[in-house]
Amino acid sequence: MGSEIRRGKAESSSPPPYPKRRKVEPSSNSKSQLGFLEKMRMRLSGGHFRMLNEKLYTCNGTEAFNLFKDDPQLFNVYHAGYQEQMLHWPQQPVNTIIKWLKSHSSSLTVADFGCGNATLARNVKNKVFSIDLVSNDPSVIACDMAHTPLESISIDVAVFCLSLMGTNYHNYLLEAKRVLKHSGWLLIAEVRSRFDPNNGGANPDEFCEAIEQLGLSLLSKDFSNKMFVMFYFKKTVRFHRTVALVRKEVP
User: Fold this and answer.
1) How does strand 228-235 pair with strand 180-191?
2) What is the number of helices (H) and of strands (E) in the chain?
3) Where is this chain compositionally biased, Basic and acidic residues type (predicted)?
4) Which of 151, 163, 176, 179 could form a disulfide bond with 158, CB atoms 3.0-4.6 angstroms apart?
């Protein structure tokens, strides 16, 4: 999942004057030309990324899965743009999650929902099920994240790192709850602007309350980073006991 980027005005595409030759060092104009061409390449790539990013936020999981299944190259375009954007972040949320996992037992089984290039799996000793819409990496499970092949109550830690996208992202959370063991962890990293109610974002307290309605208790949240926020939930046993009692009463 990367943050949304608004389109800016198009800049002039006129190339700079051809530089004069220097004996040793390339001229500053030559460097400027190379920088200009690189910026143009990045701008074109960024344009595709912005369009795909907007699409992923405004369609459901099934539509997104079919979009990338029909044209896998789009997935590569999206993640190239995502990685470019991450280069400008002073700290990446995946590293925060890696650090958290390393501070816990390596025996914990992890499900990384929206894994991208599976950075998490490559940097921890845990068994990690990397899940995304499509991938060239055979270790990644390609599927709609609302319907994974993981067994129920089989995962210790479910991770969403900038990947709660789409109009039905609540279905991804329900899927995470299904596969989590009792007392399993749910870690969510999201772009900070998505939780700024003063600028059209969600109210973080209401977001947490909604997840707690699924049977996950909020243990902590971290708003210290200027780019992203972290939420740490745990699946509650009490909730499952309540569900069991209710089921007994339903004919």
Assistant:
1) antiparallel
2) 8, 7
3) 1-10
4) 176
